């Protein structure tokens, strides 16, 4: 069996984890090249794994021993690299977001349609998480009737110092934006942002927590609490209120400790603790899909475009303090409506 | 020990349960009289318990063998009876709401202040529920830091046919309005109502579920899901998101059954299943407080007034689809700010 | 309604709690007298509640203003007082055990049969606990098929210094002995005791924890872990393994706290935290049963006798390290087989 | 990177799953050969994966394109194949048990010691399960003090028709035997078997459920409920009672469904649902250990020997109805005491 030769652009924390994954975990793949804006950092990683180093991400994309590309560089560079991959006819797995601006996303969608083939998958990892999959399965089964409300919680123990309020939407809530759309299989028609009382444990530039409210075509109302400095742990919840019952993610932990007058279950510290296994599934499914000709069932460019579009509308809602309508957009026949 | 002689106005479902409670459960009390608009119904109950029957609630209030009154008649009659009790200088425990209109509530508050003594307690039963008390204790301890958000769920399995949308606020959410104010010890400054997707299991006149959003003086944001026809059971939840952690009510059940590939915990069917014991506590504490001269720590007329005022604002928010500001009102020195 | 006049023998911790209960909580009862071996302690309690004091428990039993008696004195005095109550034709609620020796228990049973009326109820409080009642209801419903195994845990945070190993059976496990027989509605045919590794947090004379194993007529095997110095809290569990599923008590707590990377539910500290409400129910049902002529459905003398008999066999099993057979005994027609 | 070439002996259910795993999941490995006593079955599998087929397992072991062997044939053949692998100097991962008889296990241990190198790993998969690992981590941390008791539950929804009572020990409880020894890092000194009431859902030859009791050197008492036809699901539990608290596996499920007056969490149906991911970890760690020269930290021949030895003693205890002592055996310096 010939393996897929993959190059990774971006050797930061998440990039290096993907490099490790491709090298040690994902079956049917050979890591062949890495790229990073820091030559020192990139070369160090390249040497560690005995693969080629490219200063320029585009060069890596064009390289003969690279069949497919993983993009883990900073958000601003995503569009450029994805467009180059489409141009070269190479498969690309791009970390979320597809691109920070709507225009760039649209450019990618247009380029991909023009190329006649789906090359792009966006890294919305939660779709590969077992619990979200079971939740969707239960919703789809119809046993609980139609969904009416979705309550989401996205709590990080802490965020980096450079965070400002809109980043709670563009960097955190974008996961809820994608996963809720995927769970409900519906587009958004409007959004609003409500502020919580501000925790004293952030600087002034970050109003934390907030509640992002979304409305779908059928009228489902979604409230997503985004709390970046929740301190107590990394805690992701989702609760779908349906006509006949409620389906929700459980709070996972492997052990239960009874001690000092309390029953205690560990809570995850970071997103890696919670979703690292979903990454393994995401990468394996991506590689397996390419092996049979690229029939992805993962998030497409269109999904990435819709996420960025919604995220932008939410930022507008945050800034205006008002309800913002989201205009309906016809999904091109090229894409499944919601992957 | 001489016991407190109590009369009950209203022999409907809840009234009869209070009559039973006063007769069989509450210590230090003797049931002496009942009243009901239906002579037949009232007399039947009077005979069952061997007590006097009064056609007119006011007559019962004035009766010599009645020291204190419980009001469980329809909402529209509350003000009239409470005012009469104040006039007669008799203690009164009035089922929620104190009165449906702001004006009536204000009249009661004014009459009570003028009388120079607190005679009135309002039946916000949840304050006597053990789990809400523990939740408040934990919040007050400060171990989790300041509260920032409150997520509430109020789900009934079903509601009576005559329910229209505003009643989700005035009859259901009024509990969340009172208990959240009591938990946070703060007044509300504004409110908004968001519609969920409407369940197909209600008539057109009832848009169910809705989300009532409240904002407090310090900026805490409260979202209270009110779902009157949730079908699967009676489910009350409350989750306080604080600076250092989260405190929430647990989902109670006495047993756990593992069967047919599932772990199952029973859910309450009705509010009686969930809060009946809180009523026992409420009545006992009321009687005990009267025995030592009426030093109530239960919800006062002022609390009842504030609840109706907020509830009215929420109905306006529902009807307008907009955020409604709630004007600040100075609490008279006569009352504790929030009981 | 004339109330039942009750005297309490024993003004220790549990006795004083019963006195408070009869005075403040139980409806339809008037506390009229108390007795204690310590005159000072007894008189203090009597003065506090404005009731008569009797040096001699028997005198209290015979007193004209005492209709019924609660026995909360030390175990060794139970038989004497219960026999006196039967002689005087007065109802008696005796704290567990009915008596420490089989002979005394038998004497009581014989005297009661001879008297022609059931006067005695034994204080096996767990039968009044809501969760055990729901567990029995589920077992009786047959939804899970026949019970095959019972796993019990009886954990105290700590025990008094004077405890020696057999007391783990006679003072702690006696609850599991009674409640398991009541749940299964079967008699025991044998028992065995297995030692756990001894905790370092007890003195040599107390081997803690132990596992008491019982076998019933139909072959159900019961293992009851008795751990007197479990340190982390008071934790009572019961898990019935049936042919089609498992039914168990849940671990109760009113709130859930997420903090410091853990989800925490409080655990009870002492038996009072866990079972104090069951005492309220026990006393109320006892008084209510007397009010309608003494048709008790609580634990009878026969149940008390069987418990002491089984407990004695378990002590023999502990001492011998062997399986001890328990001889079958016909239940006199006077008693229900298992109440 | 050159990959490890692996052959699999046994193309039954579990064998085929391992074949799929080696082909699709495990990184760094190439499936090169399979063997089965059924030529038809074996050739079909070989064709499906385009690998060589060997009628004789020993031939497969000797084959040039086979570096390491996975044994998934019937228990009776294990010893023969393991001994051949040692003889050929090839690594071998043998499904549990190492061998059904103590003599065969001893022979393997002796041969391996004589060979001078550890070639053998036994397939005790639970050691690779995340929750058991966290449980051990917590025990090892000492935060809960010394372990005193271990309560285990091993419940299958159903067993094959050919099961007789001793197989509850040799096929089911052997997992508890290995994992408890691994958790406690201690050897067993005795055992006993207690019968539960027999479920009516098995034939006479299978007395189900039973409780297997083990005692360790330090005095820890282990009770393992083995219930092969529990009907309601596959449910594995482990609860370590320690001096300062309790540590237990949690009951895992990905979602929670509230419906029809119940909160429901799915229970696993089969062992695959529960432990399939542990197999993936087991295989990957095995392959990775071979890649760095065979420094296994998985269960050794010695562990397999000790498990079979204990399992045999338990069968004796079952048959005799008595406590059976297990003689102490010195661990050869060649092996770690407990891996």
Explain the overall architecture.
4 copies of one chain form a homotetramer. By secondary structure, the first copy, chain A, is α/β, with parallel strands linked by helices. Chain A folds into 2 domains: 4-126 and 277-299, NAD(P)-binding Rossmann-like Domain (Rossmann fold), CATH 3.40.50.720; 130-271 and 306-325, Dihydrodipicolinate Reductase, domain 2. In chain A, 37% of the residues lie in helices and 25% in strands. Chain A contains 9 helices and 15 strands. The first copy, chain A, has helices at 13-24, 39-49, 57-62, 78-88, 102-115, 130-141, 165-184, 271-291, 301-320; strands at 4-9, 29-35, 52-54, 68-71, 91-95, 120-123, 147-155, 188-195, 210-216, 221-227, 235-242, 245-249, 255-259, 262-266, 324-325. In chain A, the strands form 3 sheets. A 7-stranded mixed beta sheet of chain A has the order 12-11-7-10-9-8-15, covered by helices on one side. Chain A has a 6-stranded parallel beta sheet with strand order 3-2-1-4-5-6, sandwiched between helices. A two-stranded antiparallel sheet of chain A has the order 13-14. In chain A, helix 4 runs parallel beside helix 5 (102-115) and helix 6 packs across helix 7 (165-184). Chain A starts with a strand and ends in a 14-residue tail after the last strand. The mean pLDDT of chain A is 96. Chains in contact: A-B, A-C, A-D, B-C, B-D, C-D. The A-B interface holds A 145-149, 151, 194-201, 209, 211, 213, 216, 218-221, 223, 225, 227, 230-232, 235, 241, 243-246 and B 145-149, 151, 194-201, 209, 211, 213, 216, 218-221, 223, 225, 227, 230-232, 235, 241, 243-246. Strand 12 (245-249) of chain B pairs antiparallel with strand 13 of chain C.
């Amino acid at each position: 069996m010939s393996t897929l030769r993959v190059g990774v652009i971006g050797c930061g924390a998440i990039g290096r984890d993907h490099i490790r994954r491709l090298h040690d975990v994902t079956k049917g793949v050979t890591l062949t090249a890495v790229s990073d804006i820091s030559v020192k950092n990139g070369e160090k990683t390249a040497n560690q794994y005995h693969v080629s180093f490219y200063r320029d991400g585009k060069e890596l994309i064009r390289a003969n021993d690279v069949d497919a590309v993983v993009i883990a560089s900073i958000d601003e560079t995503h569009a450029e690299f994805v467009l180059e991959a489409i141009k070269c006819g190479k498969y690309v797995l791009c970390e979320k977001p597809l691109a920070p601006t709507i225009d760039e996303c649209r450019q990618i969608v247009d380029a991909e349609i023009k190329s006649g083939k789906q090359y792009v998958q966006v890294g919305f990892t939660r779709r590969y998480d077992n619990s979200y999959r079971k939740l969707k399965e239960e919703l789809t089964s119809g046993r609980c009737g139609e969904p009416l409300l979705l309550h989401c919680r996205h709590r990080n123990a802490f965020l980096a110092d450079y965070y400002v309020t809109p980043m709670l939407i563009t960097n955190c809530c974008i996961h809820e934006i994608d996963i809720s759309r995927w769970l409900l299989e519906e587009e958004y028609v409007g959004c609003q942002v409500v502020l919580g009382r501000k925790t004293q444990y952030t600087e002034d530039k970050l109003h934390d927590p907030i509640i992002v409210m979304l409305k779908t075509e059928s009228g489902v109302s979604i409230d997503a609490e985004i709390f970046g400095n929740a301190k107590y742990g990394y805690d992701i919840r989702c609760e779908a209120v349906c006509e006949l019952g409620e389906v929700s993610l459980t709070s996972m932990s492997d052990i239960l400790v009874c001690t000092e007058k309390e029953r205690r279950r560990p809570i995850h510290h970071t997103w890696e603790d919670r979703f690292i296994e979903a990454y393994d599934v995401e990468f394996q499914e991506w590689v397996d899909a390419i092996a049979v000709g690229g029939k992805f069932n993962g998030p497409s460019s269109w999904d990435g475009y819709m996420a960025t579009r919604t995220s932008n509308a939410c930022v507008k809602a945050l800034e205006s303090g008002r309800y913002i309508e989201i205009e309906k957009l016809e999904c091109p026949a090229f894409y499944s409506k919601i992957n």
